[in-house]
Amino acid sequence: MVDSKHLEILRKGVKAWNQWRENNQVVELDFERAYLVGVDLQGANLENANFEDADLRGANLEDVNLELANLEKVNLELANLKRANLELAHLKEANLEVANLKGASLEGAYLYKTNLKGASLVGANLEGIYLENANLEGTNLEDANLEGANLENANLTGAYLGGANLKRANLKAVQAFATSFQGSILTGASVEDWQINTESILKGVECDYIFLKSDWNDDDDEIIFDDRRPHVENVFFRAGDFEKLFKNDQKTEVLISRNRIKGKDFVNKIPPLNTVDETQNVTETASEIQKLLEQLEAFYPSDTMSGKMQIATGAISKIENNPDLMARIIKALKSAGVSAFEKILNHPASSFMIPALEDWQNTKES
After folding, report:
1. How many C-alpha atoms does 244 have within 13 Å on its Cβ side?
2. Is 103 left (phi over 0), alpha (psi -120 to 50) or beta?
3. How many other CB atoms are there within 10 angstroms of residue 364's CB atom?
4. For 129, what's the count of Cα atoms within 13 Å in the CB-facing half-sphere?
5. Cis peptide upstream of residue 230 (ω within 30 degrees of 0)
């Protein structure tokens, strides 16, 4: 419980508090369940203090030192924590909704299931921070440093991460619907099972490579990233590759499993058949599909079931976004059928292309 003596001194003001603290550095500070709504503690030295379950709604904690402090379940809604030192602080299940943490330092802090909805973390230092299952909906993380941060299962819906540093960050299973990553750095991050949609912004993302898997290693007590993309060592994404890769995935999400291809939109664009050698047309279009499948091997493995499906899905997306190629494929299907493509295509992911070809052919015939 709160130490009444500590609370009495704190309420005398920051100057009196800091002077007392300077002379009593080894004393353990206990403000558990303290009621400090709206209190002005700007510049106070509260290092290693216990504020568990305390009520600090609307408090002014600008430039405060809360390094190593216990802030579990503390209520800091609407609090001003601008430039505060929260390094290595414990903020499990704390409420920081709409709090101002602009320029704050939370390096190495623990924020499991912490509520940061609508908070401002512009330019904040969050290196190595633990944000698993945290709520960051609508949070402003512009230019924040999240290098090596663990955001597994965090809710980033509607958050803004423009210019943020997410190098080596764990984004496993994050919800990032309508989230802006514009201009952020994602090199070496893990995006296993992350959830984005067509409203998520990936324009200008800087990314040399990513990982598609991450697992906790008990022996080393750390998260290990695996399944690199591009999967060939010393091969890196070119500018714009990251956005193209994941924007394509958004458009095709479960394209193969639901077997619904948008070929109908292209039917009216197919020119009438003429005397051009139909065999040559089939060969050329099949060759273009083959080339697409081979290009996508730089991003997905061709020796696993999921990898083959992803390669095929990517190829389908690129075809659907190329009206000319789509029209030529449907024309070839009309003249020679799916079986002709089956004989020509020679790639591990070819079998996953067949349902799409059949659907395009059926669409053309309907």
Report:
1. 11
2. left
3. 17
4. 32
5. yes
How far apart CA 9 and CA 31 sit, in angstroms, is 12
Q: Which pair of structure tokens corresponds to residue 312? A: 């095929």
Calculate what percentage of the chain has a pLDDT beyond 90. Answer: 56
Predicted TM-score of the model (pTM): 0.69
Query: Quick check: helix, strand or coil at residue 189?
Result: coil
* CB of 71 closer than 8 Å to CB of 53: no
DSSP string spanning 45-109? B-TT-B-TT-B-TT-B-TT-B-TT-B-TT-B-TT-B-TT-B-TT-B-TT-B-TT-B-TT-B-TT-
Tens digit of each residue's pLDDT (9 = 90 or more) over 135-165: 999 999 999 999 999 999 999 999 999 999 9
Mean pLDDT for 127-142 is 96
Please check whether residue 74 is in contact with residue 93, taking contact to mean a CB–CB distance below 8 angstroms.
no
User: How far apart, in whole angstroms, are the C-alpha atoms of residue 38 and residue 73?
Assistant: 17
- Eight-class DSSP state of 238: P
